[in-house]
Each structure stands twice: as C-alpha cells, then as structure tokens.
Amino acid sequence: MHTFDKSNYAPHITHCNTALHSTCIMVNLVQRVEDTWRTCSKSDSSGASNSGCESSKESSRSSTPVLDTDRTDRLRDKMRHRTESGDHWFSLEFFPPRTASGAVNLISRFDRMGSGGPLFIDVTWHPAGDPGSDKETSSMMIASTAVNYCGLESILHLTCCNQTKEKITGYLSKAKRLGLKNIMALRGDPMGADWEEEEAGFNYATDLVKHIRCEFDDYFDICVAGYPTGHPEAESYDEDLRHLKEKVDAGADFIITQLFFRADTFLKFVRDCRAIGITCPILPGIFPIQGYQSLRQLVKLSKLEVPEEIMQVIEPIKDNDAAIRNYGIEQAVSMCRVLLESGEVPGLHFYTLNREVATMEVLRQLGLWIEDPRRTLPWAVSAHPKRKVEDVRPIFWASRPKSYIYRTQDWDDFPNGRWGNSSSPAFGELNDYYLFYLKSKSSKDALLKMWGEELTSEQSVYEVFTSYITAQPNVAGHKVMCLPWNDDPLAPETNLLKDELDKVNRRGVLTINSQPSINGKPSSDPIVGWGPPGGYVFQKAYLEFFTSSENVTALLKVLKKYEPRVNYHIVNVHGQNTTNAHDMQPNAVTWGIFPGREIVQPTVVDPVSFLYWKDEAFALWIEQWAKLYEDESPSRMIIKYIHDNYFLVNLVDNDFPLDNCLWQVIDDMFELLDNPPEEQPAEQPAEQPNDEQSDKEQPGK
Amino acid sequence: MHTFDKSNYAPHITHCNTALHSTCIMVNLVQRVEDTWRTCSKSDSSGASNSGCESSKESSRSSTPVLDTDRTDRLRDKMRHRTESGDHWFSLEFFPPRTASGAVNLISRFDRMGSGGPLFIDVTWHPAGDPGSDKETSSMMIASTAVNYCGLESILHLTCCNQTKEKITGYLSKAKRLGLKNIMALRGDPMGADWEEEEAGFNYATDLVKHIRCEFDDYFDICVAGYPTGHPEAESYDEDLRHLKEKVDAGADFIITQLFFRADTFLKFVRDCRAIGITCPILPGIFPIQGYQSLRQLVKLSKLEVPEEIMQVIEPIKDNDAAIRNYGIEQAVSMCRVLLESGEVPGLHFYTLNREVATMEVLRQLGLWIEDPRRTLPWAVSAHPKRKVEDVRPIFWASRPKSYIYRTQDWDDFPNGRWGNSSSPAFGELNDYYLFYLKSKSSKDALLKMWGEELTSEQSVYEVFTSYITAQPNVAGHKVMCLPWNDDPLAPETNLLKDELDKVNRRGVLTINSQPSINGKPSSDPIVGWGPPGGYVFQKAYLEFFTSSENVTALLKVLKKYEPRVNYHIVNVHGQNTTNAHDMQPNAVTWGIFPGREIVQPTVVDPVSFLYWKDEAFALWIEQWAKLYEDESPSRMIIKYIHDNYFLVNLVDNDFPLDNCLWQVIDDMFELLDNPPEEQPAEQPAEQPNDEQSDKEQPGK
C-alpha cells in the first residue's frame, strides 16, 4: 500500500483542501510529473445496468421551465426525482483556472461537457486564489459563469477554516446574488502550523453547515464530504462516520465522497452510513486514473492507499500515458458498473481534473453521456433562479447567447423581457467585449489567419463569409471556424441551408443568422427537435445579413411583391430603420406543441430588441475584426467602410407551411440588380419617376 | 307633407325622448296600428360603392385583443380608423324590452344581429321604465348585457331633463362600473307642463355633456343628437346648428342624426355643420320603413315630414305589410347608396325598432352585413374594457359563453384567469340559472316537447341526445334544437363530426362538446378559421361527454393503450376525479399562427376550471331537465339517476397532425364492453387478478 504523507505536499501545487472535492492540481503540473509506481490490475466483469434509463432520462431532462410546473428546481429535488425514477445521473468537478486564458478555455469546456447532460458541476474553492473575488480566475466567478452563462446547475465549494463569520456570510451573500444555489461545505486545510480550535469559530464543516442554515435558512442546498476510508485526521473510521452524521444532522442535503479505488470500499461506507441513520444521497467520487504522476499526487494529498492490484498494472506502463489512461478508463468503467448495479448509487461524481477525454469516455461506455442531449428549448436555458421562467428570447442572439444573458442580467422580469412591456429595463450596454465569458476562443493570430492578414476589398470580406459557410479553407489555406457573430462552426440546422447560404454570401449578402422553415417536425428530431417527447416543433424561415445600401435599394423594391408574406426590418449603424412590421409586436418564429401543455414560443423576432442587437452586431465589425489591423490600414478601412455603410437586414417568411421564399427574395434582388428595368419608352419623360422611386425606397437617404 | 304634433302623442306609447335615438315604440304596439296614408315612390338608381371595403374591413375587424397592440379601444378611435381606411360600418339602435321574456328575446337578437358585425349598438333610455335599475328590462341592464355577454360595443343613452346631478352621476358611475364606455347625451322630454329652465340644472344636452366631462374626464365617448331638419323646438335651423356646435364643443365625440327620408337632407346638414366648424363624425340615422303605422307613429313623435314621393308609394299599399316592408328596404338601400357614395358618410346608423328582417336585408343589399363575420378568436370576445386582454378560455364553456362570463365577472386578472395562478379568484357560483341572459330561449312546454314529456329509461335520454345531434325529429316528432348544455343547434364545426357523434350517443356516450383536430387550416377557413388573414389555425381533437360508470371502467382500460397520446379527465358529481394529465397545467387545444404575430392559444383544457365546470355541467341535468318533471316522477328520477351516477369525461388527442383517434378510443371501449376478455386459462387462479384490476380502475370505488 502506498500512502503519501501530507508533509510531503509540494507548496507549488496551489490550492488544496482536506477532501479531494477541493483538491486541485493544475493540469500542466500534473502532466509534467513522471514517476515510477507499482500497481496491480483489478478487473470487474459486471455489466452496466441501464435498463429503463433512457426513457426516464428524457422525461426528467426535457421539461422546460414554463412547461413543467412540477419541475424540481432544487438540486436535492432533482436528485430525489431521478433517484425515484431510477434515472442514473453524473456530475463533474472542476477547479478554477490559473490564468485569464485558462478561464476562457474552461468556459468552453463547460459548454462541451455540459452538452453531455451532467446533473450538476461543482467548482472547488481555492483559498490562495482570492476565491470570492470578481477576478475571472476566482472560484466565485467560475461557478457564477457556469450557472449564468453555461446554464449548468453548479455547486460552489466553500471552506471555513481560518475565516470569520462575516467573511463567510459575505461569500454566501455574494453567491446567492450571483444565482448560486448550492454550497459544498468544507472545513479546508488549516493554514500554517499554529491553527487551533476557536471557541466560536469554524472548526469543522459542521460549523459551516450550521452557519449556512442559520444565516440563509433553507436557501442553499448543502453538500458535505464523505470519506469512504475515514478522514485522514480522524481518530477512527467510526469517529469519522459520527462527524459525517453531525454534518448531515446540521442540515446537509447530500454527501459526495472522496475518491476510492474499489467499489466495495464505497458500498461498505454506504452501509455503515445507513446503519447510523444517515439517509441522504451519498454520491461516489470517481477518479478515472489519467496518468501516473497525477495519481501519485492525488494519493499524496488525500493520504489514500492505492490498491496493489492497480499498482501492479500501472507500474509497468508508467511511461505510457495512453496505456495508463486506457487502463484508468477501463478501471473506472468496471467500478462504476458495480456501483450502479448495486442499487445504492443514484449518480456518479467525477473528478475531472479539468480534463475532458477520460471522463467523457467512461460516461460514454456507461451509457450516461447523451451525445445529442434533448434540448428543453431551442436555446440553452440559464441556470440562474431568476431566469427559471424565461421561455422566450429574440432570435438575434442565437449565436451569442452569453452576450444576451449578459445584456439582460439586470432584468427581473422574465420571460417577457423587453418586448411590448415598456416598464421593463432596456438592454444593458455591451462595451466589455473582452469579458472572459464573451471572448472568442481564438487568439488574434488565429483570427487573422481565418479572417485575412490583409483585406483588399469588400470582396475579400465576402470570401471570409463564404469560407465559413462552406467550411472550405480560405485563400490562405485556413479554415474559417468562426466569425465575429458566430463563435462556433455552423449549427447542424443551419447546415441544411448551406448551398443557398454559400451562393448569397459570395455576392455580398453576408449572412449571420438563419433558420429554415419547419412545419411540424417531431420534437425528437435530432436536428431541429426540442422540448418534451411526443410534440411537434415549427419554425418560420428566418434570414439575417449585412448588405450594401445598393442591394437594400433593390431588395426593398423586390419585397413589395412579397407583402404581407415576408416581414422585414432593415437598419444601418446610424439607426435608420425601415420595416413593414408592427413596431412593437414580436413575431414568433419558433414554437412547439406538446402533449398536455400550453404552446411554447421560445424564439421571436422582436422589433424593439432588434435595435439593441443592431448596436452589438455593428460594433462587432469594429471590435472583433477591424481592430485586428493597424489603425488607418487598408484592411481596417475596408471593415470600417462596411460598418459605416452596410445595412443589417432581417427577413421572416410567415408562410411556414410553404417552401421558404426568402432565397427567392434574394434571387429576385440579384436579378433586379443584374437586369435593371428598362428606361421608360421615349414618348414619356423618362428618368424622373424612377429616380423618385429609388430615392424614396432607399433607406437612410 | 305630414306632420304629427307632439300634443297628439299617445301616453301609452311608453318611452320617448326628443330625438328618435331615444324614441322607443313597442314593437307589438307598432304592429297593431293600421292606417291610410298617401305616398309616392322615390327610386334611387345609384350603385353602392364598396370598393376596397372587404379587405380593410378584415384588417380592422380581425385584430384580436392581444394580437393588435395598436388596436383602437375607444369607439371614437375605431371610427377614425375605419373612416381613414374607407371601411364603411353600420350600427344598430334598440330600445329596452317591456317584459322579462322580451329581455331574453332581445339578447338573442343581439347575438344574431351582432353576428353581422355592427360597429356598435345603442340602447335607448327609458325614463318611465326605471332605466338605471337592475331590473332585466332597464336600459342599464340591457346595455350592460350587450357589452358583457354579447360582446357588443354599446352606447347607453342618458337623458338629463328633470334629473339631479347626483342622480346623473350615479347613473354614469354605475354604467362605468358595468363596463359601459359610451354615452349618448340627450336632454330628454320634459315631464309634465310645468318644466322651466333651472339655473344650475340640466336644461340642455350640452349641460349633460359638460357634466360628463367634468365628472368623468375623458372616460366616456360621448355621442349627441343632430337634427337634419332642425330640432322641432328650436327657433330656427341655424339656431339648432349653433346648439349642436355647443354640444360638440362641450366635449361630444360624434353625432348621430334623427331619421330623415332624403339623402340630400342629410348631406346639406353635414355641409352646414362643417361650415360652422363641426368637424366630428356625423352619422346618418337610417329608418327603413317597416309598416304604415310605425311610420305614422314615428313621424308623429319626431315632428318630421314624410316626403310626398314616399307617401304616394305607401298610401296605396298601406294594408300590405310585405309590400310596405319591401318598399322600405328598397327606399333605405337607395338612400344609403347615395349617402355612402357621397364620401361624407363613414357609417350608417339604423333605427331597428328591435326588429331584424328589414335592417338586415338593407345591410345585405349594401354589402355591409357580413354573413360569416371573421372571428377574432374562436369565441366571442366580451366588450368589457376589463376583459380586453382576455385571450384564452377553457373549452368547457364553449357552448355556454355567457355563463363563463358570468362566473368570471369578478376576475380582474385576464387573460390568465384561474389556471396556474392560485392568487386569482376562483369561479363564481352559478346558482342563478334563470338570469335572463343565461336563460334558455325555449319555454318549458317547448323543452318538454324536445326532451320528452315522459322518460322511460336512460335509453330515452340517449335518444334525445341523438335527435339533437342528427337534427332529426324525436319520437314525438319534435326537433331537438337545444340541450341543457347547448342552447343552439350544432355549430358548423361540430357538424363535421356528426356521423361519429350520432353513433356514440345512441350507445350512451352523451356528448356535450367536441371539436375535430385541425392541422394548419388557413385562418380564413369559413368553418374553423379565426384571427387575422394570412394565418393558420390548429386544433387538437376534443370530446366531452357524460357516460355510465360501467362505460368508464372499460374506457380506462382502453385508454392505457393511448398513453401518452390521449389526455383524459374523468369526474363524477361527487368530485371523484381520475386523470393522466398534470393537475395544474392547461393543455392548449386551439391555437393560431399569424404573420408578424406571437402565437395565440385561445382555448385550453384546464384541469382546475374543469372541476368548476363539472359542478355546472352536472347541475344542468337537475336545474334544466329534471325540474321539468314532477317531483318523484319516473322521468325526474331517471335524470337524477344519471346526475348521481354518470361520469363527465373529457378526452384530448394530442397528436393533431394524425387522424383523430378519439372515435377509435370509444369504439375500443364498446368493443371491450361487447366482448369482455376471456377468463384466465384453467391452470391459473382465474378471477382474482381481473377483479382487482377493474376495482382499481373504476373511479369512485
């Protein structure tokens, strides 16, 4: 058996608490460490029990905020609900990043791993890293971002050791204000050697649990740590169990355990807990072995013993990262299968070490990772309790949902939001394009490669758009993976429109948002489906693009033929606005009909918010694109010219049961531009009426 | 020229004011009078100008409360809107009835004439008839009923002569409280000979206009009377015009004129009004001559002269009612065409004398009567300002909308109403089944003929339902035109389901409400369409019926096969309730998608209100049917047995794009009843599981 003494703990491994829940090892550090261990293999042949899992998962996951009035908002209720339905879940633990760019990466990872459907994630508390601050690397901000911008149910760790009650209350108040609803209450490691129990202070996690319940009543769901082999500092295993009972009795809602290497260890622990009257959920902490050194570090920190059978396998392959990772996956899958089959384990908690591959692979093999998770709404629902009834958003921010959340964070009136309700607050300004959760994942260098080191004309801008749409490399041979308005490659749904999008972008109809018309596809449709099973989803075709004022002049003539089928809003950066739609009334462009429910209309074209979106959409030309180039450089001037002179256009085809006519509208516009109508015959005064006409129709003149 | 002196005014012609607006002649009286007059024919060959009328009418008429945010709520705004769009309107004047049964009839007439699409109706003030009281024959109650229960924009007349300010203010406050928004301000006839102008009293309509504006600011729209040939008591035509100018300057919004017989009379009057600066709308009062005697009476009261050319036609046919009516229609149509073509007349006001035929015929010939008026919503919208945002109702009251309005009259929270909002008030009790606006139009005798003088079994009740559904005479040879739950013959929409309804009612599935599934029919569909043009309407199939507990037991077994496609609620009079739906969440069963709009879902199956409806639906068995028979009589006992033992069932087929499966559900139920499953094979203990099963499934056991 291998045990690492805490005294050996290297001080540069930054944030660490007694339980592994809050034991954070920087990824880059872990990857560097290489050592030699002896291990032995433990293989478990039990099969996974997934019976009935899929269907019950759907029913619990796909309920939308407004649709499901018995939706279980509290994490403990969600757990009970899924436990009762036999619907196994998983959850993921992350630690805060060390750098700002690490924060950007972690948020992307939240999005990717969030798509697999975790019941919650948790973010460890990093006492040395100013954890309650507004810094982008703080525990508080990372957890807040996960909740608010990634829509993830989140638990914030909190350690109480060496903290005043005022400080702790301040942290909790801030967490509450930010929309956090769950706390993992931990003691934390005493700092320095001179720590002694304080009479009225926080000596144990129990004190923190009591404090939370005392100061915040039942607001927070509280999690505490369990030690399947006993806390390293505890006098005995039994003594430690009694402490755990105290924590639960003080008001904790569930337990997550320290990692362990044998299913039996956990199952015995659960039995022992139940025997002394602990009835709350006990979630096993799963640690897929991802590398020799990280295992060694973890064990050192947590004073755990690695079973001989594991050491025997690992030791011979300690220099083979891939082999160790594969073994770790296999070992974790085997152990998890035993746990799930035991009937004692409603959900699995994963120590991810902020990595994706191993955990996702284990979850996939267990059948718990939902490759294409059912969407409750066509957009990701924020997890802030204030937004729980939000069920409608303007379509404009479809590709910039975090920006929409940011700009509406001060609203307290969801779902109605801005439209038609003049008493609601307006959209917040978006001056902070570089907030880490709004920032592009790509570096300036990468952006220049994608969007052009040097632009020579408006046409070279068109080509960037075309490359993005077609996923073909640009002239410099780089794939365009994002645009200022689209941080990700084309959505599968938009891909349905690829050919048409390609064609029009080449000619300077620079599309930034679109959706096809849908006339009643099943809600389970893998591409356009959302909402509970057994329903039908609908869409009106939508197209949004920038284009030149010459194009707009032709477009407006063409659109007359499409009244009242097509609604349009056309605006330039100066706010000159032309529309044939009601100036206050939203147009529902996505809606769903479900068994036993009211109608849901989650996406609208809202004329009021379009004018706020316009500011953002035009600003992105400058903030994200023009500023890549030198001041006064031709490239920058080209982008600025587009910014100053182009119009932002949105079109809705109201006749959703018919074929989308918006491409025909654009074709007609090109046709009119290519073949302008003949002058009037000679016997009539020629130019005048035509000129008048085009003057009147050109917005902004 | 024929003039009737006011001194000849017969005192038994009850309620009468200076203007014909408030001159009311009881229909029965008018019909009795027969006299000899000389008339001459005046034929007008001008064609009606209806160009562009249809489309603009649609656009203004079809805006639903929630759909149209620039909807013009005030009558004066509606007038301006329609005047601007060149969309001619008509309006209808009625007087209060003399008897309670007259009130029931008048309300039915409101419904019938309201279906032609009047912009408003007005109800005359009957000073001798306790006009401001709560009696069913009072002007106040008739106007209130028109607004609240018939959904008609209404003007209440009010005369001020011989009234204290307190009394007038009291009337106005009451009118406001009842949802009336428009007042026709009149002086009224002085009562008795000793009337003199009072210093601070109401001497002229102008005083009343000023008083209304002073006490109620801009709340009411105010109409005043205009006299195309001058008021009979005025010193001169010009003097009378100046009085009219005073009334308008005091705050009147528009003018309705006394009747006249020549278009020129009116058009000159309008020119003269405009010349002295009267700019508000001036609506011509049209009086289609309906009989010799009624014309004579009217002229007598109003001191008008009937032109020789009319007298010359009428006099020879004075004993031929039909001929006079036909002439009256022809004369009115000709005159109205001239008026409408003049461009000076935005709308026509009709003195109906509480009759339907002549006015409807004139309107039909003018193209102003909309035979199948576009419905703004699938149900008639109440005209009470409090309910202007109401856009959803439970489907249960579809055939009893007045009862729904009555039971929700105290709500101040529309459109959400009861569902899901526990802070809303509950439904009011319905103990007053005999309120005149809720009362059946049929007499007890007529009901006994339709529903059976004597019932011999439940089967004879089934036959009444079947007769109603099929519109075939019952065994006694009488057509069943209504049922306690359906005051009118089958709706055209329900007629689509006739064959199926016939089949199931014969077997004791006693249907009281149903709708077919609709998967995106145009909103202009003549049978199922509603809402603005260019939209699509949808429905989930719905079926509601009473049936025996034996049937319900089989039905519940059958319904297992239809999970989750079919939602059901099954309840008996004691409130024993079985459902597979959410117990709080409504199921939208009618919705519409329109260009440039949000989704509208005007009809829902709401579980909470179903339990209120249940009380009413069961009570109707007793209140409207059982009580037709002697206490303890077999007929009464049969109805009471059904009331006590049957269940009320509603079914929704959620899969609206597929063929309605609800008939199959009922067929399966009959099949199960006809061919109960075999007993278990001999080697197993037979009855027990089956018995258990049926025990569990039979609600109420």
Unreliable runs of chain A: 1-71, 683-701
Question: How is the largest sheet of chain A built, in terms of strand order?
Answer: 1-2-3-4-5-6-7-8
The count of helical stretches of chain A stands at 23
What gross morphology of chain A would you assign? elongated
Q: How many strand elements of chain A?
A: 18
Q: List the quaternary state of the chains.
A: homodimer
Rg of chain A, alpha carbons? 29 Å
- DSSP strand (E) fraction of chain A? 5-15%
SSE-based structural type of chain A: alpha/beta
Brief descriptors of the model:
eight-stranded parallel beta barrel, alpha/beta, EC 1.5.1.53 (chains A, B), 701 residues, five-stranded mixed β-sheet, homodimer, MTHFR_C (chains A, B), 14% strand, disordered N terminus
Could you give the topology of this structure?
Two copies of one chain form a homodimer.
Chain A: H1 27-32, H2 53-61, H3 75-84, E1 89-94, H4 100-114, E2 120-123, H5 139-148, E3 154-159, H6 165-177, E4 182-186, H7 205-216, E5 221-226, H8 237-249, E6 254-259, H9 263-275, E7 282-286, H10 292-302, H11 308-314, H12 321-341, E8 347-351, H13 357-366, E9 393-394, H14 401-407, H15 444-451, H16 458-470, H17 492-495, H18 498-506, E10 510-515, E11 518-522, E12 536-539, E13 541-547, H19 549-559, E14 566-572, E15 577-579, E16 587-593, E17 600-605, H20 607-625, H21 634-645, E18 647-653, H22 662-674, H23 687-697
Parallel strand pairs in A: 1-2, 1-8, 2-3, 3-4, 4-5, 5-6, 6-7, 7-8, 9-17
Antiparallel strand pairs in A: 10-13, 11-12, 12-16, 13-18, 14-15, 14-18, 16-17
Could you walk me through the main structural features you see in this protein, from its secondary elements to its overall organization?
The structure is a homodimer of 701-residue chains. Chain A is of the alpha/beta class. The first copy, chain A, contains 23 helices and 18 strands. In chain A, helix 7 packs parallel to helix 8 (237-249), helix 16 (458-470) runs antiparallel to helix 18 (498-506) and helix 20 (607-625) runs antiparallel to helix 21. Chain A is elongated, with a radius of gyration of 29 Å. Residues 1-71 and 683-701 of chain A have low confidence and may be disordered. Chains A, B: Belongs to the methylenetetrahydrofolate reductase family.
